[in-house]
Amino acid sequence: MGIEAAAALRRRGRQVTLVHLMDRLIARQLDAVAARALLASLTERGIDCRLNTTLARIDVDSVLSSQGERLPATRVVIAIAVAPEAGLAQAAGLRCQRGVIADGQLRTPDAAISAVGECCEIDGNTFGLLAPCLAQAEVWRSGGRDYYLCGGFLTNGRWHVA
Ligand SMILES: Cc1cc2nc3c(=O)[nH]c(=O)nc-3n(C[C@H](O)[C@H](O)[C@H](O)COP(=O)(O)OP(=O)(O)OC[C@H]3O[C@@H](n4cnc5c(N)ncnc54)[C@H](O)[C@@H]3O)c2cc1C
Questions:
Q1: Could you report the per-residue pLDDT of 92-120, keeping only the tens digit for each?
Q2: C-alpha span between 3 and 35 (Å, rounded)
Q3: Is the CB of 141 inside a 6 Å radius of any atom of ligand 1?
Q4: What topology is assigned to 87-149 in CATH?
């Protein structure tokens, strides 16, 4: 999401600095080679990418990076992922940590309730892309196939950064 915003702002002629916590972009879905290609593409567009960096402080016209560097900024876009809102599930007595906890067949301890999509947590993982969610829907539709055998796990996804 942050990369999409950065690319769009750059297309509009803004000076853009992309600050990223990890040592590579989209680390959960891209391997090192693909992440390097994406980084090169963004850099070619004039986006100043800072990896292994977070923001220590946001001020009116600048931000302070975790490396102690002050970066001029009139706008700050924060894209640090979403967390499932599991209040309803919790109130229904389901186990929830990062999301609604389900097994490989998406079953919760309540036989009448399955967890599918971004709200669901399997083996400590949550899923913020369409492809794994669609694979989960397929598991649910098929009534018992195992999610790990359905090919929609973490690496699968389509990206709109053009
Ligand atoms: C801006 C943006 C860009 C994205 N870009 C990409 C991308 O490029 N590629 C990609 O793979 N994924 C992308 N995603 C992620 C993708 O959209 C999600 O992973 C996917 O939509 C999750 O599907 P879902 O059915 O689990 O949840 P959702 O699509 O969020 O659907 C949940 C539905 O439940 C409804 N709901 C919530 N609470 C209740 C309630 N109490 N009662 C009744 N209904 C309720 C909501 O209104 C909503 O319609 C993007 C997401 C966003 C926000």
A1: 999 999 999 999 889 999 999 999 999 99
A2: 12
A3: no
A4: FAD/NAD(P)-binding domain (3.50.50)
